[in-house]
Design goal:
heterodimer; A: mainly alpha; 3 helices; flat; B: about 400 residues; alpha/beta; TIM Barrel; three-stranded mixed sheet; 16 helices; about 50% helix
Chain lengths: ~60, ~400
């Protein structure tokens, strides 16, 4: 392996920690009339739970 | 090491006891010499036996498992314990409809620990021709292919939907969230009611192990190493960011207790030395180094024998791991690794199950005299302790270590 860290840094459309990344979800939400950062933050929090569910089924259960 | 009984300590508050235990445990993990040898037994179904429960109770209802862990922590002078070492809450595989986890009281005898059912080679949860799908989009593969295949209830996108499918996803997510959220309260109970440290935080598996354990099966993977080695390597690399993320996302924010890697079959003789050096180690080592870069130690819970790979482990930054000794010779492990890493465990489980208290005390004496002589040792059995472990022998291990293991 030339750069042993490369697999950890490799860009991915669905990065570790996400199931539906915010840029993808944003396209589906239409006009954002309020605080987009707040929407993004809370979206990513719950998305992280769904990621945890999937991968803990693999790793833990 | 003292040869006399330590003086009776003055009564201390639970909070003071917690701070003393935390300092003792952390010092030993940093390969330093604390005031006495810390005791951190990984007690699993043993907790049920001690608390008057059976395996079904502590597996089926995590609140009973929490209570059993608290009961042990309150009664034994242990510095740290796992908040719930009967880690697989039986409800999760039940609501998902897991095909590979058998739970006590549901198909298994009610006083037998939960079991992982290894698939046959031709029934692996991931097919040999699905490597590219896993490599290209690991999370998508897990969600759309793997979960529906390991579940009796879930269906893949495009298949006819069912009520069972909807409920399995709903209840599965809710159960994992309920369970993980409850750990915060359990860790507080350990601290407040018992003055006991929660021993670990964060879970890690080696990328290679996860391909064997949950996707291709051990037999499938070992054949793939010959038939499609480049696919195996790409898949193992694809697992790396996910294993790292899972480990760090539940790690101790205070960076005091370690992330644990549960090491199963990635060692000789399950695989060859060449395969270890080509697949297992180059894809695990960067993760351990990255975790260390974030300020966390990793507890190498080296199930079985890993002596053949100690040289590789020495490549890791000094202090970055704690090496837990199962069926390796703990004295050899200390000689080979003790200058760089703390050691834990090494007390044979068969001795704790079937030996006499005098035999347990004698073995602990040797370990304390040699392995713990300069600090950097945490008392524990080799493997997690299930309900075959003798209560009398655990008392002997605890009381002897507390009396004899004073620096």
């Amino acid at each position: 392996m030339s750069d042993p860290y490369e697999p950890l840094r490799r860009p991915h459309p669905r990065p570790a920690g996400t199931v539906v990344p915010w840029p993808e979800q944003r396209k589906d939400m239409g006009e954002m009339t309020g605080d987009e950062a707040l929407v993004r933050k809370t979206w990513e929090e719950i998305d992280a739970w769904s990621y945890a569910f999937l991968w803990h089924c693999v790793v833990s259960f | 090491m003292t040869t006399t009984t330590a003086p009776s300590p003055a009564p201390v508050s639970t909070s003071t006891r917690y701070e003393q235990r935390l300092a003792r445990y952390v010092a030993a993990m940093r390969n330093e010499k604390p005031d006495m040898v810390p005791i951190r037994p990984f007690v699993a179904e043993f907790t049920a036996k001690y608390a008057g429960m059976d395996c079904q109770q502590v597996t089926q209802d995590f609140r009973l498992a929490f209570d059993a862990a608290i009961r042990c922590a309150a009664d034994f002078d242990w510095d740290a314990v796992v908040a719930n070492m009967v880690y697989v809450w039986g409800m999760i595989p039940q609501v998902i409809g897991s095909r590979y986890l058998a739970v006590p009281g549901v198909g298994l005898e009610r006083d037998t620990g939960f079991q992982y059912l290894e698939p046959a080679e031709d029934g692996a949860w991931m097919r040999a021709d699905e490597y590219d799908a896993l490599i290209d989009d690991p999370t998508g593969y897990v969600m759309n292919v793997w979960m529906p295949r390991v579940s009796r209830y879930m269906v893949s996108p495009g298949e006819t939907n069912t009520v069972q499918n909807n409920l399995a996803w709903l209840k599965g997510g809710m159960s994992v969230m309920q369970y993980f959220t409850a750990f915060g309260g359990q860790i507080e109970r350990l601290r407040e009611e018992c003055g006991t440290v929660s021993a670990i935080a964060g879970i890690l598996k080696a990328p290679f192990d996860i391909i064997a354990d949950k996707f291709r099966g051990y037999l499938g993977l070992t054949m793939d190493l010959f038939e499609r080695p480049e696919k195996v390597m790409a898949a193992v690399k694809a697992m790396m960011p996910h294993m790292l993320h899972i480990a760090l996302s539940t790690a101790d924010p205070a960076k005091q207790v370690p992330i644990t890697i549960w090491m199963h079959r990635g060692c000789v003789p399950f695989i060859s030395p060449k395969q270890f050096d080509e697949y297992f180690w180059p894809t695990l080592k960067p993760i351990i180094e990255e975790i260390w870069g974030h300020g966390h130690q990793t507890l190498f819970y080296a199930e079985g024998k890993w002596k053949h790979h100690w040289g590789r482990f020495r490549e890791l930054p000094e202090g970055s791991i704690i090496y837990h000794c199962d069926r390796d010779d703990v004295f050899e492990a200390h000689a080979a690794l003790g200058d760089r890493f703390a050691i834990s465990g090494g007390i044979p489980n068969f001795l704790l199950s079937f030996g006499t208290p005098d035999q347990v005390r004698e073995y602990c004496r040797k370990v304390i005299d040699v392995v713990a002589a300069d600090g950097g040792y945490i008392m524990d059995a080799g493997a997690i302790m299930q309900n075959d472990t003798s209560i009398e022998n655990i008392k002997a291990m605890t009381e002897f270590t507390r009396e004899y293991g004073v620096y």
